[in-house]
Amino acid sequence: MPCEQQIVQTLYADHHRWLCGWLRKRLGCVDHAADLAQDTFVRVLTQRSTQPLREPRAYLSTIARSLMIDMFRRRALEQAYLETLAARPEALDISPETRLLIIETLVEIDRLLDGLGGRTREIFLMAQLDGLSYVEIGRQLNVSVNTVKKHAVRALMHCLLAAEE
Predict the structure, then answer these.
(1) Torsions phi, psi of 70, nearest 5?
(2) Which domains does the chain have, with CATH numbers?
C-alpha cells in the first residue's frame, strides 16, 4: 500500500495543473487560483488519508470550492467593514494588526452564525443587534413568544458550545 506522502505527491503531480485551471476559470486571476490550489493541497495534507482517491478531481474541487467560498465571504466581510469605517464621521486610525484582528473576528462570527438555522439566526440577530424583545420579535415574525424563546435558547447554546471549542 502506498504511503500517505506518495499518495499526496501523485495527487499533486497528476492534478495540480488541472486544479489551477479550474480555479482560474472561476476566479479570473492566475495568482488567486495558484494560492487557492496550494491551500487545497495543504488541506489534503492535513486530512491524513492513506487511501488513494477514486475521484480525485471531484475531491479536490470540493475542497477548493469550500476554500473559495471562505475567501469570498472573507472579502465581503472585509469590504463591509471598510465601508462602515469610511461612513463614520470621525477618522479612525487603527493599526494593520488591529484591523486584521477585527476582520478575523468578523469572519469567526459569520462562521458561527452560519451554523444556525435561518429562523434561529434571524431571531438571534433581532434580539442581539436590534435589541428587540421576544414579544416584538414574535410580532414581527408572526410566531409565538415560546417559539422565539426556543430559537433564542438554541442560538445561545450554539454560541456557548462554540466558545468552549
Answers:
(1) -60, -40
(2) 4-87 (no CATH), 108-164 (1.10.10.10)
Residue 123 burial (10 A CB sphere; 0-12, 13-18, 19+): buried
Q: What does the DSSP assignment read for 17-71?
A: HHHHHHHHHHHS-HHHHHHHHHHHHHHHHHH---S--SSHHHHHHHHHHHHHHHH
pLDDT digits (tens, 9 = 90+) for 77-116: 888 887 877 777 665 677 888 888 888 887 877 777 777 8
Report if pTM > 0.70: no
Give the relative orientation of helices 56-87 and 96-114 as an angle to the nearest 10 degrees: 120
